[in-house]
Amino acid sequence: MKKISKVLIANRGEIALRIVRACKELEITSVAIFSEIDVEGLWVRKADECYPIMGDLIQAYLNYEVIISIAKKANCDAIHPGYGFLSENADFARACEENGIIFIGPKPEHIALFGDKMASKVAMKKVGVPVLEGTDEPVEDKNEAKKIAAQIGFPIIIKAAFGGGGRGMRIVRAEKEFDSMFESATNEALKYFGNGQVFIEKYVENPRHIEIQIIADKYGNVVHLGERDCSIQRRHQKVIEISPSPRLNDNTRKELYRISTKAMFKLGYESVGTVEFLVDDNDNIYFIEMNTRVQVEHPVTEITSGVDIIQRMIEIAEGDKIKFLQEEIVFRGYAIEFRINAENPQKGFMPSTGTIKTYLTPNGPGVRLDSCAYTGYKVPANYDSMIGKLIVWALDWNGAVRKAKRALDEFVLEGFPTNIQLHREIVRDEDFIAGKFTTNYLDKKMDLFTLHAKDHLLEEEQKIASIMKLLDNIKAKNLKVKH
Ligand code: MV4
């Protein structure tokens, strides 16, 4: 008998729907939860059962006592946390287990370890992973911290030990800037993460951000599913993710795979996870952090590796062994993911809200759309602005870029500003096409993009009008059309 026959999905939006789909394919009953504003969510409609969580809209997906009590009442064996919200909350994972519910994810101790960025660097260093020179213990004294920074040599970066998303992070280029930067990083860390601990490390200029997808079971089997290049981002929000990285040296790639799988094996990691690295101009690699959840960008890996990451994550949680060997994973082609956001790139990427008036989605060979949007869908202002992900695939890099152009051009989404036109311009940029991009790519290129979309709908309407005219003409002349 299978241990998991009913899963509560503690999330919303496209990832909640992605998990519903995985459950259906595994013949597992799915249970959705929703906040008051999310009543019409697609995941709510598609799940087998659903339960409202009243009150604060954000808190709905964070209130773990309420979520666990719903799971118990509904007889769920397991909870899938998705990404964000409770996905990297070790206390929640522990609370699930204490209530006899399987947390579909890593062990609480691994979530806790990798939530501490400094502790995770120390742990990874011990198992042979290269890290950047820096402090191994919290430094509270500013003057002592400054001394260490000077020893490492400027530029250095100050990071929040329990941080993420660039918050509590400061690049310091000269000693005289150190004091104020240290203070503001500490204050920001305290404000956002409830913990002011910061650490210092050598700063790498314009790195590439490469991450390795890992899948590991309870029996010490660790397999990697290749890398993703997530260098194209804005203010630490990824915009485009690619697998494999188009210009990564093959020896560097193999080294990243080797050290990541070895480290996860030695640490006894279980479930899916992502090891993040910075890669500099000289192909030096440095571990920066580990994500102990399924990530937004997992589809590019699913497509190039052929592994359904969400399904396998559920099976691993119920105690299954991984059924494939590393050698059996055959990577094929290139996949590119474009995050579709309700935002206005012409106005500093200001989040937009509104109702989708027209929704004509790209489709056809090599196109996947993971989204919760539909005609009439209202984008709430209360959650993040990502409303979907367009993923394209082709056998080679140039084919994937051409596929992306075609799919992005097909996309009609009207009702509020989106970043679709920005994507259309990126895939026409020579440096993007050449695979030349690092983490400063978008900051450097934004001025070059016009962001003036041609009106696809108007164009189509005009085309239809001219066809109608032609038909009228044929009728007027009473011509016979032979077929
Ligand atoms: C760095 C770095 C350069 N040197 N650490 C940004 C968020 C966090 N995950 C780590 N980040 C960085 N850490 C050192 N020592 C540059 C970044 C960074 C970055 C990393 C990945 C993806 C996008 C980024 C954009 C700016 C800075």
SSE order and pairing:
Blueprint lengths: L5 E4 L3 H13 L3 E7 L6 H5 L2 E5 L10 H10 L4 E3 L9 H9 L3 E2 L4 H8 L1 H10 L15 H11 L3 E5 L9 E3 L5 H16 L4 E5 L5 E9 L5 E8 L3 E2 L2 E2 L1 E4 L6 H18 L3 E9 L5 E7 L6 H8 L3 H9 L16 E8 L1 E2 L5 E2 L2 E2 L2 E3 L6 E5 L6 E2 L6 E9 L2 H14 L1 E3 L5 H7 L3 H4 L7 H5 L10 H21 L7
Bound molecules: ligand MV4.
- Count every beta strand, where a strand is a DSSP E run of 2 or more residues: 24
- Secondary-structure content class: alpha+beta
Helical coverage, percent range? 25-40%
**CATH superfamily (homologous) name of the largest domain:** ATP-grasp fold, B domain
Main beta-sheet annotation: 5 strands, parallel
Radius of gyration, in Å, reads 24 Å
List the uncertain runs.
none
What small molecules does the structure contain? ligand MV4
Coarse morphology: globular
Give the tally of structural domains.
3
Task: Tell me what portion of residues adopts beta-strand conformation.
Answer: 15-25%
Give the mean pLDDT.
96
**Widest beta sheet: strand line-up:** 3-2-1-4-5
The helix tally amounts to 16
Give the N-terminus to C-terminus distance in angstroms: 61 Å
Structure, explained:
- By secondary structure, this protein is α+β, with helices and mostly antiparallel strands.
- The chain has three domains: 6-104, 3-Layer(aba) Sandwich (Rossmann fold), CATH 3.40.50; 133-202, 2-Layer Sandwich (Dna Ligase, domain 1); 208-451, ATP-grasp fold, B domain (D-amino Acid Aminotransferase, Chain A, domain 1, 2-Layer Sandwich), CATH 3.30.470.20.
- The chain is built from 16 helices and 24 strands.
- The mean pLDDT is 96.
- Bound molecules: ligand MV4.
- Ligand MV4 is lined by residues 132, 157, 166, 201-204, 207, 209, 233, 236, 278, 288-289, 439.
- Ligand MV4 binds next to strand 8 and strand 15.
